[in-house]
Amino acid sequence: MTGVSDTVEQAFIAPRYLAGTGDPGWITQPLHRVSGWSYGHDPLIPRVLLTSPDQLTQLRLAPGDPDDPDWWTIRKARTADHPAWAVTFQSRTPVEIIAAFTDALTDPDGPPTGSSDPFSALQDAGWETPRHFGGLASPDGITRVEQLGTPGSDLWHIETAVIRDPTIWRAVFTGTTPLHLITAVTHALADPAPIMRDPRRIPGWARDRMTVHTRHIPSTDVAFALERRISALAERHHRATGIAPAPPGPARGRTR
Predict the structure, then answer these.
(1) pLDDT-derived band at 75, boundaries 50, 70, 90
(2) Quick one: CA torsion of 110, 239, 102, 74, rounded to 10 degrees?
(3) Structural domain contains residue 236
């Protein structure tokens, strides 16, 4: 029987787009340890650079002002089959939202068959088009997703904001970004499951617009959450390719 000493208090925050940043390792560790992305950052500079094995895609994490538009930047170079694209996420974007993008990007099965509609999952979750606005807004009106511009020069734009506060976080996708990757993000936005956070790090913004439940859970569930995520992604790689990835090495510490 698990005792109190074997548990730790955690906060479960909904809606998930208000949960706050989280641990960047949720994104960077699987890219490096499962998908083989190499790192080339200077350890004396608080910045992370990861490059895909084919050298075509790069993730850059450059902490600065929390309101800078491009704390997280993911870029892919042009290929014979697809133009270049770029994606940026602001600092307060929950890592689980960004991880939905990187998990889809590194899926060894490739893009899903059929068409991908970024709006579909949102509509299924009750997101609607508000008055005087294109795109879709969450039922609480806090997060909006829209496609701006014209085909060929368009942008996909996600913004989380409340009236009394400035923008909490924003994500921007060039129109050339593969739709299934944007769709992975909107699926994550529409997911009603709360996000777990340390109760000492509950975001201070929009507190009256979020639901927070705290409870004690086994301490191992927290301590090994990232390792379980890495193992699951490694198994996905093995199922798709029949080749087991190199055994994951120990985490190289926090990325920031």
Answers:
(1) very high
(2) -60
(3) no
Going by C-alpha positions, the residue among 111, 254, 85, 113 that lies closest to residue 172 is 85
Residue type present at position 196 = M
d(CA 250, CA 11): 27
Within 8 A by CB and 6+ apart from 219, the residues are: 6, 7, 8
Confidence of residue 251 (pLDDT cuts 50, 70, 90): very low
Residue 103 contacts residue 169 (beta carbons within 8 Å):
no
Q: Would 153 be classed as within a structural domain?
A: yes
pTM: 0.90
d(CA 23, CA 253): 11
Asked whether residue 123 is assigned to any structural domain, the reply reads yes
Pairing of strands 7-14, 155-160: unpaired
Range of the domain at 173: 25-192
Report, in this order, helix, strand and coil percent for the chain, each rounded to 5. 30, 25, 50
Total structural domains within the chain: 1
Inter-CA distances, 47 with 27, 62, 170, 184, 188, Å: 14, 5, 20, 26, 26
The rounded distance, in Å, linking the Cα atoms of 15 and 160 is: 11
Specify the higher pLDDT residue, 226 or 39.
226
On whether residue 215 sits in a domain, the answer given is no
Listed in order, strand segments (DSSP E) in the chain are 7-14, 38-39, 48-51, 57-61, 72-76, 85-89, 136-137, 143-148, 155-160, 169-174, 195-197, 211-218
| Four-residue CA torsion sign, 193, 87, 59, 62 | negative
Half-sphere exposure of 250 (CA within 13 A, CB side): 2
